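## retry 2 of 3
previous attempt timed out at serialization; input unchanged, resubmitting
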Amino acid sequence: MEYRKLGRSGLLVSDIALGTMIFGEKSERSTPADEAEYMIHRFLDAGGNHIDTADVYADGRSEEIIGQAIKDRRDQVVLATKVRFPMGEGPNDQGLSRYHIQHGVEDSLRRLDTETIDLLYMHCWDPLTPIEESLHAFDDLVSAGKVRYIGVSNFKAWQLMKALGVSAANGWAHFVAAQYQYSLVTRDLEREFSDLCLSEGVGITPWGPLGGGFLTGKYQRDKRPKEASEGRIAVMTEDTEEAWHRRDIERNWDILDAMNEIREAHAGATFSQIAVAWLLAQPAVASVIVGARTREQLADNLGASELRLSVDEVARLDQVSALEPGYPYRFIASYGQR
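## retry succeeded, writing output
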């Protein structure tokens, strides 16, 4: 495992982060508590130190499982969680108000059985709360020692830039991490966020590196997977970012063909490892969040840290997965150079 700086901070995180969204979830895809605890320890034993969760994952159960698993290894972990989404039925049980942030963090600290959250994300923009209120509340938590670093997730580019400007103007803690969906089949982030984050010292921590399972190589052209047809797996249902109709396009099948060619040049490498290794080759990426469901998937994902793609292989994947630039990016590329 390698360690990288998280944005413009001195914090070092493992290049692979352990995602825990389905730990303890009440669903068919859930990872039970005992298996989740084994995976957490396996991850730490392999040299990983970055564990990612959120208060809303499994209604708080994910945080509880992590807290139990790391209680004797807390100093080995860079612990990240999030606040924003509903955690109750009351009108103030969601959002980025000072009220909800403070209550949410206290609840997360209790579930995680820790005194400090290493990295706290704003899980999504709140259209009701002024960003100044949210950022000031986050800064107060840092000053109080309850949070060490702060991050952002699911903001638009202008919202992220505004937040960074507000923090700088007031001398408040600034975002050092940005968590967004990012993979070979979902490169929309690059239109704005890659340059923004590199410029402003914010490390990208991608989720969904395997495109909802599509980049594992288990699917075939013109053959809708059974789980997508039956809606048994949440990530394959029609209303999600990882819906099958967003995956079953010719460009994505071409990506898999290119990955297969590269895989043959790396004996033993898997599709999943190539997908994660490509992300790790992107300059704005600090740590890739892998959401392994089983210990076998975790072992496979951890292998990506040892895989080194050549410059030509990265370029091949860049080319086959490239998005239509659109306006104004096409215009700038044609006329805006000096």
